[in-house]
Structures are given as structure tokens and as C-alpha cells.
Amino acid sequence: MSSSQHALHGCSAIAGSSTSVKRGMFMQLLGNKMNEQRIRELAEQASAHAEETVHYYMGQFDGLTWEAKILKARDLKFAELIVRECAWMAKDPAPSVHDHDAYKLGRRCAGIDVLKHFGFEE
Description:
By secondary structure, the chain is mainly alpha-helical. The protein has 2 domains: 1-33, no CATH class; 36-117. The chain contains 5 helices and 2 strands; from the N terminus they run αααββαα. The protein has helices spanning 3-15, 19-30, 36-53, 66-91, 101-117, and strands at 60-61, 64-65. Strands 1-2 form a two-stranded antiparallel ribbon. The two termini are 37 Å apart.
């Protein structure tokens, strides 16, 4: 069984498990190799964006205090940055063993579909 078939088999096994078991098995499949440094960079970009775009005010505006509004702006920007990063990775033009036109087109379409699904422009 190839490594991709093994991963797919593992994903099938996850489908019938409880949420906490699913999360643990999924992280095991990934080998816990999350890029924590990149996630930290995206979080910092999101925080900077929120601080630059949400101006201080007292009381409530649109039902939110300034603190709540800045957290909401940060969280929305962080989500957008992660989605854009994922879409970029899907569209990545880096050469690979699958360097034929249909594969490249499929990756590009997948990246665009991810952006559209979450309501972002390319």
C-alpha cells in the first residue's frame, strides 16, 4: 500500500470515530508537523491589521465594545489569512513529480474554489 493509499485508509477509519478521537488520529496522520511559526506570523499580521483598522471608541458601536470589535476584526482577518495561505498552497506553481498541465490546472482550480467557498476574491 502506498503512503497516499495508507493516508486515505486512515482518513476512512477516522470518519466513524468520535470528535476527540478523530482529532487525535488526524494529527497522527499529519505527524504533528503543523507549521507553528507560520501560524504565529499570520496571527501577528491579523493583530496588526485589527489595531490599524479599528479605531478606539467608548461605549458600544454595533452592539460591540471596542475590545470586542478589535478581537472580531483580528479573528476575521486571521481566518482570511489562513484561507488565502491554503488556497495559495493549492495553487503553488512549484515544480513537482506531477508537472503536467491537467495536474496544474486542477491545483489552480482547487485554490480558486477554496477562495470562492469562503467568499474571497482571488
